[in-house]
Amino acid sequence: MKVLMVSYEVYPLAKVGGLADVVGSLPEYLKKQGIDVQIAMPYHRVVDAKAKTIEKTELVLNTEKLKENYPFEVYKTYLEAGDIPVFLLKNDRLIDSDDVYGGSDLALQALGFSSAVFQLVKILNPDIVHCNDWQTGMVPVFLKTFMNEETPKTLLTIHNLGYQGTFDRYYYELSGLPEIYWEKGYVSTGGMFNFLKSGIVFSDFVSTVSPSYAEEIKTEEYGMGLNTLLLRLGERLVGIINGIDYSEYDPATDKRIPANFCLEDLSGKKECKKVLQEELGLACSEKPLIGLISRLVDQKGLDILAQVTEDLMKHDLQLVILGTGEERYEKMFKMLAAKFPGKVSANITFDINLAQKIYAGSDMFLMPSKYEPCGLGQMFAMRYGTVPIVRFTGGLKDTVKEFNFETEEGNGFGFYEYESIKLKEAIERALRAYNSEKWSTIVKNAMKTDCSWEKSAGEYKKLYKRILKSERRPIDA
């Protein structure tokens, strides 16, 4: 079975968010399952500093289906983990920014890239083209419209339905696609050209990054205007939880943390906490240390957290924040740190190394998200024995279970209703547990939680087989 994965970001070549971690890790584990995996991505400027070797091929992909041709030169590199081929599609006119998502015309860039991928598919001849997020949503459209009976099956994975790629109708006119698609509403929402909707309509199967999120997006609350379309997919909408790379994220061998530790010997975790406190100017003590690593935006639950920060500061605890985002939240955490020196550390930046130290050195990890398609932070935290406190939504609901003091089952704490009082209560339950004899049990339960890619890769293999056996899905908006 040959699979071509298409993504705008792939770790370590280009990373902005969790998508890069997924596409940078999953192929290695799919290969272990016997699947022949290749990757196609834009040749972003940042790739030059990340790839060890890049070779130029003789291929030039012309976007002949668009109103104007944008030739893409094809370069090739490999992911070191799994020796996975990565095709880098280069057009300096369209990919014209140092930032992965900072192009001067993102709609035209995504159109050109998708059209070039269509040409690449005809050369590589995969069985399945696995697309990711709205930037690749037009690939299934081009394939189903312009290819013959040899058209490969397609899977589109939605990593976050909140980002759909909606643009003026002008860009559809540049696509070279039939006018009837627009008339029938296959490619538009509210009079705007919608890349993600287009991909959903034309893909054979659609997946999301957790089973719970797959159910949530069928509802009006979470469906972002596409819930009716997604509901009609029936069994062709599948949720598979993401995983993390256990070889890279291993507290027993990780060189990025001050001291190593494992399930059988947690003494190194105490050292990680002590070093983190010293580095961030927090008082060195046994007080519970809560970490928060996040984009500082409403979606991550910061609006309800803002309502209870003053009350939380009355507890004997410490809080470490790492992230950037909306100015009001950056200012809020800076002011909190100034008001409570030695108790709060606000790090308004993006620092991968500090993030790793927070995962390893904190006692608890806070993710009170309004919605969370999958979430990786809670997985990293549990791998390092840091107990998650979450809102039970999406992937957080699928990976974190409330600790039961009687049965000693569960690996964290959480709440359902999106209310500040419920968040406060969940944190207070965690604080009480920290001061009980059950804490080490909760920590070990968290570390035993299987968030590895092995299980998820097996689920993707099953899905790929289903897709290959399925009849072609008719176009129906």
Automatic annotation (TrEMBL):
<dbReference type="InterPro" id="IPR013534">
    <property type="entry name" value="Starch_synth_cat_dom"/>
</dbReference>
<comment type="function">
    <text>Synthesizes alpha-1,4-glucan chains using ADP-glucose.</text>
</comment>
<dbReference type="GO" id="GO:0005978">
    <property type="term" value="P:glycogen biosynthetic process"/>
</dbReference>
<keyword id="KW-0808">Transferase</keyword>
<dbReference type="GO" id="GO:0004373">
    <property type="term" value="F:alpha-1,4-glucan glucosyltransferase (UDP-glucose donor) activity"/>
</dbReference>
<feature type="domain" description="Starch synthase catalytic">
    <location>
        <begin position="2"/>
        <end position="230"/>
    </location>
</feature>
<keyword id="KW-0328">Glycosyltransferase</keyword>
<feature type="domain" description="Glycosyl transferase family 1">
    <location>
        <begin position="286"/>
        <end position="439"/>
    </location>
</feature>
<dbReference type="Pfam" id="PF00534">
    <property type="entry name" value="Glycos_transf_1"/>
</dbReference>
<keyword id="KW-0320">Glycogen biosynthesis</keyword>
<comment type="similarity">
    <text>Belongs to the glycosyltransferase 1 family. Bacterial/plant glycogen synthase subfamily.</text>
</comment>
<protein>
    <recommendedName>
        <fullName>Glycogen synthase</fullName>
        <ecNumber>2.4.1.21</ecNumber>
    </recommendedName>
</protein>
<dbReference type="GO" id="GO:0009011">
    <property type="term" value="F:alpha-1,4-glucan glucosyltransferase (ADP-glucose donor) activity"/>
</dbReference>
<dbReference type="InterPro" id="IPR001296">
    <property type="entry name" value="Glyco_trans_1"/>
</dbReference>
<dbReference type="Pfam" id="PF08323">
    <property type="entry name" value="Glyco_transf_5"/>
</dbReference>
<dbReference type="InterPro" id="IPR011835">
    <property type="entry name" value="GS/SS"/>
</dbReference>
<comment type="pathway">
    <text>Glycan biosynthesis; glycogen biosynthesis.</text>
</comment>
<feature type="binding site">
    <location>
        <position position="15"/>
    </location>
    <ligand>
        <name>ADP-alpha-D-glucose</name>
    </ligand>
</feature>
